[in-house]
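In the previous chapter we treated chains in isolation. Here, by contrast, the input contains two separate entities that must be folded as one system, with a combined length of 828 residues.
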Amino acid sequence: MNCELISVGTEILLGDILNSNVQFLSKELASLGINVMRHTTVGDNEARLLKALDDAFESCQAVILTGGLGPTPDDLTKETCCRYFSIDLREDGEILRKIESYFRLKNIDPMPQCNKKQALVPTVGRVLENNNGTAPGFILEKDEKIIVILPGPPKEMIPMYRESVKPYLKQFTNEVIVSHNIRTFGIGESYMSEKVEDLLDGSNPTVAPYAKSGEALLRVTAKAASEKEAEELMKPVIDEIKTRLGNSIYGIDSASIEQTVVELLKNRQQTAAFAESCTGGLCAKRITDISGASEVFHCGIVSYSNDIKHSVLGVKQETLDRFTAVSAETAREMAEGARKLADADYGISLTGYAGPGYEEDVGLIYIAVADKNETVVKKLLTGHRGNNCRDYNRHVAASNAFNQLRLAILKNDK
Amino acid sequence: MNCELISVGTEILLGDILNSNVQFLSKELASLGINVMRHTTVGDNEARLLKALDDAFESCQAVILTGGLGPTPDDLTKETCCRYFSIDLREDGEILRKIESYFRLKNIDPMPQCNKKQALVPTVGRVLENNNGTAPGFILEKDEKIIVILPGPPKEMIPMYRESVKPYLKQFTNEVIVSHNIRTFGIGESYMSEKVEDLLDGSNPTVAPYAKSGEALLRVTAKAASEKEAEELMKPVIDEIKTRLGNSIYGIDSASIEQTVVELLKNRQQTAAFAESCTGGLCAKRITDISGASEVFHCGIVSYSNDIKHSVLGVKQETLDRFTAVSAETAREMAEGARKLADADYGISLTGYAGPGYEEDVGLIYIAVADKNETVVKKLLTGHRGNNCRDYNRHVAASNAFNQLRLAILKNDK
C-alpha cells in the first residue's frame, strides 16, 4: 500500500513548529511495509488542502493527516476531508460530554464554547477516541480511498496512532519490512560505500549508506512474508559486511557509540572516568543519557582551566607550561589523573580547540585513553573551522573518545 | 514572493531523519516576508522529484531544495534540477581541488573517487561555496523561475543559507519582518499570557506566547518598510511587557538561560563551578556550548557515585548515610564543595531522580547555589515520570539551576 502524510498548519509553514509527527508516522508505516511516497505540509487553507488530497490520491490509496482539529475557526482539516468525500457532520452527544468532563478535570467550567466544534463527527466513518486531549480522530473510507485524520500535538497523536490506527492499517499489509543498522566509526561514508559498493545494488535485501554527524552507517532492509524470512534474507549480506568492515563496526542497531561503550563496560564490570576540557562535559552528558550508566560511570571532571587540570587531575604544572594545555602530554596526564582520581579501569581525556574561529588550530583535539597497561594518545583533526564548527567539533571529539575507549576495551579482551 | 520547500531524501520518508531544515528555512523566509506555500518531501527518485518541481512552480516563483547532494549514486537532486531547466553539468577544477584539500585536512588522501561527483556544477547559474562540507550549493534561474539547491546536513545548509541565499533573496522583498523573543523562566505560559492578555490582540506589532521545554516566551513581531521602523513600533510594547513581567524575564533574544548566566558572570568577572549528579554533566555541557564560557566556568564535577561526592567534593560520609545522596543536605555540601574545590564565586549542585520510571521520586531534584554569603537549596518537582521523562527532567533541572544562579547573581547586586 502507498501512503502520503499531509501535515496541516500555518504555524508549521511559518517555522514555529518542528514537525516531528511525520518522522514518527514514517517509521511506523515503514515497519508495516507501507510505502510513504511523500510528505506534504499545507497551511490551514481549504483550497490548498483539497488540492493536496487530490495530488496525494494520484499515487496513494491512503492519506494520513495530522493537525487542524483544534477548536478555533481556522482549524478545518475534518471539515475539508468530509467535503472531499462528500460526508456530512453531526454533533455527537457522547463526545461532547467527554470534552466537557475533560475541562472539568482541568477545573475549567463551563467549557469554552468554541470547543463544541470538536464534538462534530462525520455521519459515516470511524471516530477515534482521544484519551490525551479534546479532539477525536477519524478514519474515512470511500471508493477504496482511505483518509486518516489525527490531532497535531504528538502527545495526542502518538497514542491515538498506536491504539487505533496501527491495528486498522495492519489489515492492508501482507508483508513485513525489517531493517538493521550497521553502525561504523572512523571510516567515512565514501570509504565505507566503496568497500561494499557491489552490495548496494541489491533489491531485497537492500543496502543503503547514510552519514550523520561524523558517523557512517549501512541500513540493510528486507521485505518478506514474515520477520523470520526477512532475517534469513539479510543474514548472509550482514555477515559479508561484517567481514569487510570488521572493527569499524561498533554495533548493529546500537542506539549510539556511547550505548555500545556502556554495554561493553557493563559486560566486563568495568568503569570509566572522563576528564574533559574542550568537550566541557559532553562525554559525561552523553554517557549519562543512557539509563543505568551509573554502573560503569562514576566520575567526570570538566577541567576547563589549567588550574583545575593541575589541582584536581594532577597534571604537572611543568607539563602545562612546557607543552600547553592542548598537547599530547597534557591529554596523557589528564587521562591518567582521571583514572586515578576515580579509581576506574579506564581514564579518558579530551583537550583541544573546538572553535568557533578560522585559526588553523581549530578542530585539533588530543584524546587519551589510559588503562592499567598503557595510555594511548591520539591526535584528531576534525577539519571543521568557522563560525558554526563548535557543536560539530565537540560532538565528533566526544564520539571519537568513545570509539577510542571501545577499541581499548576490545584490545584488552585479547 | 511565493516559495515552496522541497526536501529530498528517502531516509526522511523512512523516518530516519527529523527534518529540521524546513523549520529553519520557513522561519528565515517568513522574516523576509516571503510566503512559504508548502513543504514537500520526496525520496531520491528522479521522476517524483521532477513531478514535485512541476507542482511547486504551479503556485510559486521560487523553490528551495535541501538534500541529495551527497557523493553516492542515489544522490540526484543537482542532476534532476539541471534536467528540469535543461542545463548541462561540467566538472569544476577549482571545486575539485577544494574537495580534495578538504579530505587532506581530514588526513584522508587520496580523496574517495565518488566525491568527484560533487565537483560537477551547472554550466549556467551560481555556485554556492560550502565552507562546512564537500557539496557546493546552487542557484538556478530560468523563465522567472528560481531553484535554490542546498545540502541536507544542517551544519552545511544553515551557514550556506546565511552567507549566500539570504542576501540573494532580499532583492525580491520590499518589507521586513522583525521579531524579538522575550524569554521568561519560572512562570508558566498561562500565567505569563494572563499578565499580558490585553497585548495579545495587537495586529502590528503582534505579541504571541510560546511554551517550550519548561520555559515560556513572548514573541513580539512587527512588519515595516525598514528595520528601524519595525523597532520603533515594537519598543513601547516591549517596555510595557518588561514592567509587567520584571525579573521573570531572563533575556530578550537571549539564546538561552545559560547564555544569560554567562553574560551576567562575565560582566561581574565572576566564576561558577558545578557539581552534578542526576544531570550528569548537562549543566557543564550547556554552559560550555557558549563560546567564551572559559572566562566564567573553570570546573565541573560529575559525581555520579557517592564515593566521588565524598572523595572529590568533600560531602560528609555521615550526610550521605543519614540523608542519602538525594537530599537538601547533600545538595548543600556538593555546592559548597564545588565552590571550594574550584575557588569559584558560585558553586551550583544538582542531585535527584531523572528517571525513567514511574516511582514517585522520579522528577524530584534538589538544586543548591552557594556563594560567599549563603547557600540556598531548592526542591524541584518536575511532575514528569514514565518511560520518556529522563531527557525532560535533566533538561528542566539544568535550566532551573541556571535560573537559580541567575537570581543569586542579581540578588548580590543589591
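The first strand of chain A starts at residue 2 and ends at 8. Chain A touches chain B through 88 residues (CB under 8 Å). Compare these points with the single-chain example from earlier in the chapter.
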